[in-house]
Amino acid sequence: LVFNGAIYNYVELRRDLQSLGHTFRSTGDTEVLLRAYQQWGPDCLQKLNGMWAFLIYDRQRGRVFGSRDRFGVKPFFYYRTNRYALFASEIKAIRASGLYQGGVNWKVASKFLLQGELNDDEERFFTDIHQPPPGTAFEVDIEGHWKQWRFWSLSAIPSIDCKDPVQSFGELFEDSVRLRMRSDQPVGVTLSGGLDSTSIICMLAKLRGESEHEKATALQAFSFMAKEFDESAYIADTLIQTQATSHRFQESPRELWDKMATVLWFHDEPVHSFNAIVGFDLMRLAATNGIRVVLCGQGADEVIAGYSSYFPDYWQMLIRQGRFGDAWNEIQLYTSAHGGSAWKCFLSSLGKVGITALHHIPAYHSLSVWKNQRKYQGNTWFSPELCRYFESEVPEYLDLSLNAVQMQSVERAPLPLYLRIEDRNSMAHSVETRLPFLDYRLVSLVFNMTADWKLRGPWSKFVLREAMRQRIPESVRTRVDKMGFPVPDQKWFAHDLYEPMQDLLASQAVRERGIYNVSAIAHDLQRHRDGHADIARRLFNVAQFETLSNLLKGDSVQRPA
Model confidence over 415-426: pLDDT tens digits? Predict the structure, then answer.
């Protein structure tokens, strides 16, 4: 067995296996996983609660069995030819094998540079390197015959009769945190002023308070806060309730810029924003304080509907169902708390329902694809050769329910990318991140709930807010705005990072790369500095692509053929 991850319910599985006659020589979860495969074969996956990527060499059956966990928390890459198959947790391992013959995948690179899109799917930033989708298992024999299947997906979760959603959610969330506390190392938390991390740390403090051993040490919380996004009052309320020790770092934009190469070396691929570099330093801060296991709130926004974009999706769903009065009432409640015009929101929702209907007409959809292609192929920042690699994709305009929209968020984007960022950042410092909101039992429960338990009036994550009543500070439970760990990158590129970006554009490597129109980028950088445009994300993407290219010195990252 080669195993990366953690099986949180290994204690319970160990007892089950012992009752079936298995004996154990160790006390951890790795041997439990191997014995579970010996007992149940591939069906063992249904019994696992955790995060994993593993390979088992089954000598009796003459094949290798492998799997990724239900949500793809742990990385797993492979490269196959007609002669061999390589498996690794990092792309750099495959590239360093001496057997890899590929290079930059310009189809993916062009989509990233032109559209700013990073979908963490099977196709990677390097040609012919793939990863199995989340919730996947596979077998390969010595002759190279490959069989792959999904053992779990959101579309196939069983129905759950949930008579009391709040109580059921609260009980499952508590058990999820309890399982993820199991560790022979101290457990910490990444803490913002938001609902997700506050719920985790308050639940963790409650469960620790029930253990004499845990009470002997202080709970550690790690935070980042740019001065432009002040959440200190919310964090202070949480620290008072939990008696946690707070560790906060505040680094300058230039210091974060200087760490870009280090972060990208660990990631092997581009990241979504400066937040990824912030996350890298949060994990460094945890490691330097002796914390090797960190609980964090990834997955909550996608599973329990935390993004503001879900509100229009919900209103449009109500309109498509003919529930115009319900949609109007929901919009009024929302705008009364968040601001804006209720009528404009309602009319916009009606319009989007109409556009969705038009996209069912093949000619209209084809026209949209063509217009999208022209828009990006006319990008003045990049060479025509790069633009020709770009394949336009128009977002799917389907009559989706809120559940279906969330399913795309969990399985396609953005969650897979965010999980990749979290894992590489933490493992770079030998820290293990655990995600209570991605316990598959909790996810299955929420996806069996009606939409009004997720969004109600001005409230996102409604069921979580109700379950955390009297469990977390009321100031956090009832706040309607959302931050996380934001960075003011627009301001940074106009001031602190203006000169570093100028220097990068003036470098010989950029001029010789053959894919940039340097004068056009420099002109827009000046417009950004003067306040006439906000192109911070596009500038960051160019900077990190160039930084990543310099790290790939042995590979060809010149003008695409």
Answer: 999 999 999 999
